[in-house]
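Morning, I've got a small favour to ask if you have a moment. Here's the protein in full, and shout if anything looks odd to you:
***
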Amino acid sequence: MENSNDNTMEQPSDPDEIINDQHLAEGLFYPKGKELKVLCTINNSVLTDNQRVCISTLQGLAAKMSGEQIYIEEGGASTVWKNHLNTSYGVEIKEFGSFEELVTYFCKAIDIQGYVLYNKLRNSRSLTAAVALCGPLKAVAVDKSLEKEINSLGITTCLMDVSDRDEKWVFKKYKSTFYKKFAAELSPDIKFHLRDYVTLTNCFIFYDGLTYWRNSVLQDIQTGGVCLGGGLDEFKMIKNATEQGIPFVGTDMAPNLATLSSIYNTEGLCQPRSDEEAVEEENVHYVTFMLTDGDNVSYDYWTMYDIYSDPIRGSFPVGYTISPSLYDLAPSVLNWYYQHKTVNDYFVCAPSGLGYTFPTLFPQDKIDGYLEQCNKMAKATGLHIFNVIDSGGVNNMDLWEKYLQQPDIDAIFYTGFAEPSNGTIKLASNGKPVIEAGDLLWGGLSEESDLIERINAKPANPKVQEGYTLVVVHVWSKGFKNMKTVVDGLNKNVKVVTPEMFVKLIKKNLGSVNK
């Protein structure tokens, strides 16, 4: 391991090639770290920005090599997930008070080969270049301003200096060294989130906007892979990735994934089906609520916890979109949500399956493989209803038939990107429904009083598609208080049900209508 005290060194030369012979355990879809046994925690508040970057790459190396791993605690949900690892999985917790203490400890605990030097002040893209190389080189990323301190702590070998480089140079020179199942798109302005998992998996990391070069990176991802992180302009970003056959999994603000992925216990990761049967009723209109944005693992990690902690939760039925990627990336987080659900809580697979993509635009020669992987995730997680975001595809029944032919996908909740919510319901040949969003609860677009009025004016007849309303709730502008106002304002013959019961009622009452 890298622990020499000799601080004199020559300027490193760029190797002609970097051989990546590292092998990680694979989960259901994603690589995972060594099985987690001990959690070495440090509070985010004691670290500088450059120290956070360094620690995040050290996190990735620790997860790659040892059951003793690092957790950067940020309070709120981050503290909940830390404590859950201890109480539900028996992970021992060790607390560290400073950057120096943590680095010194891991210099002795794992085999750190050295560091990759960058200079963010002079060249922000050098940070991305350095992080890209840390996994394959078994190195930590060190800013020029931090170099002397790192040397004093025992990491003295500068393996590469990319202060004047960017990730395009890295990709051109070392493309063959990177893990090909996915890449990560991440702004240099994000201090440490996701960088740990990039280092663990040796995947390529970049940030280039919507360019031809971005296409070349996406095209280098193997068929069946995904892009992690976050980019610019949601619609164009997803459309561009979709056209390459690459779903997007939002993880740009998700910390500690290298460590969280290192849980191998799969108990409690499958949402059980309800055995409650649909009952025929007359003179009733059915409503179900579905919260948005669960495709983003960062949202699942942070904001969803705050929403889920609302004391109103459980008093009426609500559906939550959530990413099936948590099964591998943060199984303890998925377990926590399932552990704390009530009979009125139901989780829906977030858009549009394994990752955010517009299925109508997905390459036809790749869609079958994608849907097989979606079904595999649905079976493992118990996320049997799929929210699908698409662009102009609501009537594309040939495509939705392919989704619904998968044995573990029970229904599609269709939400068009910036499209009207018309509430159409169509049944596939096997009787499984495609249910279009029927209305919105969305700040500035559809307020509580407007929604109440529209729903109360709809037919109270479960034998017609107009007797059902799927309400999409925008999580960034509306929450439980707003939903409760709607529930309290509905007519007595309007019933709010879970998404699971909503699907059962449609199948029972509509039969073969609108096939």
Notes: The radius of gyration is 24 Å.
